[in-house]
Amino acid sequence: MANTFKLKTDTAVGTTLTTVYTVPASPATTTVIIGAVLSNITAGQVKANVQIVTASSTGENADDVYLVKLLPIPAGSSFELMEGKVVMEAGDMFKVESDTASSLDVALSIMEQT
Length: 114
Known about the structure:
Layout: E1 3-13, E2 18-22, E3 30-40, E4 46-53, E5 65-73, E6 78-80, E7 86-88, E8 93-98, E9 104-113
Antiparallel strand pairs: 1-9, 2-8, 3-6, 3-7, 3-9, 4-5, 4-8
């Protein structure tokens, strides 16, 4: 198995739930989220949502879950989301949204295992 470290980014995320990263299905991949930083690039406070949307429709990992919901991030500040690790399977998605248009930059550090 090969382990590959990667950085996935998105800029100016707004009021639509935006996919920052999707775990590849081919080749079969498991991804470990090592870190995630959300940065407020506006002059006012924003509230952020981060969600894991799973590719599974049945079983123990078939639920879409929020890692944070309505997290306040002050103007010009950032928030380091990950204290531990999150494992994602093929087809799972890491999504982010804000309550303010074009307000969040996202940096996602991952390790893909193929």
